[in-house]
Amino acid sequence: GESVGLHLPTLSVQEGDNSIINCAYSNSASDYFIWYKQESGKGPQFIIDIRSNMDKRQGQRVTVLLNKTVKHLSLQIAATQPGDSAVYFCAERASRRALTFGSGTRLQVQP
Amino acid sequence: GAGVSQSPRYKVAKRGQDVALRCDPISGHVSLFWYQQALGQGPEFLTYFQNEAQLDKSGLPSDRFFAERPEGSVSTLKIQRTQQEDSAVYLCASSPSPPSDTQYFGPGTRLTVL
């Protein structure tokens, strides 16, 4: 079936740099997208979401960009901190309320 | 307030045993979801409840998997005659009334089947 995928399995950045995590989705019917952060041994933690009628949404130090033309989603983290180290998942929702997740990108922040 | 809680956090079962995993959603949340997460993978949908009604169980991998939410709050995921391939983390998420879509996850139950 259609699923959400990620370009980079591991991303390593220096503390204080900006991070960009990318995600490609294939279901053009998806109308809602969400980013989660998951630390080892914990459940996914909500970061930010966006609906398909928007192309950008900002939160605290995070920005999500949605490009429906090329079915691409990105998460930007400003001034990355060691506490941002985790696996990041994007997920989409189409016709049913369940989310479809990608396989995740590991973000490593070097001090 | 309190988040989603799950118990037990860890469960080891011998192949063929039945297990029951519990989820306590955020108080007042109408929607409840179960997901299965294999090591190194993203969560995969199992089933969805709106109040006590199970509206979608299309993700349950076999008839050995059964979920219930009889009073519209706490939910139990039961796996009968466990197999090694059932080893995974089982995540529960809850969401407020529609049209809110944000799902808040619990810490998960790590099931290991020997």
Overview of the structural elements:
The complex is a heterodimer of chains A (111) and B (114). Chain A contains no helices and eleven strands. The relative contact order of chain A is 0.34. Chain A has strands at 4-5, 10-14, 19-25, 32-38, 45-51, 56-58, 62-67, 72-77, 86-93, 100-101, 105-110. In chain A, strand 4 (32-38) and strand 5 (45-51) form a beta hairpin. With 111 residues, chain A is an all-beta fold. The termini of chain A are far apart. By secondary structure, chain B is an all-beta fold. Chain B has no helices and eleven strands. In chain B, the strands form two sheets. In chain B, strands 2, 4, 5, 6, 9, 10 and 11 form a seven-stranded mixed sheet that branches. In chain B, a hairpin with an 8-residue loop joins strand 9 (88-95) and strand 10 (104-105). Chain B starts with a strand and ends with a strand. The mean pLDDT of chain B is 94. The interface between A and B is medium-sized, with 23 and 26 residues.
Query: In total, how many beta strands of chain A?
Result: 11
Average pLDDT reading of chain A: 90
Helix coverage percent of chain A: under 10%
Sheet-strand content of chain A, in percent, reads over 45%
Say how many strands of chain B there are.
11
Percentage beta strand of chain B: over 45%
Task: Please give the oligomerization state of what you see.
Answer: heterodimer
Rg of chain B (C-alpha, Å): 13 Å
Largest sheet of chain A: 6 strands, mixed
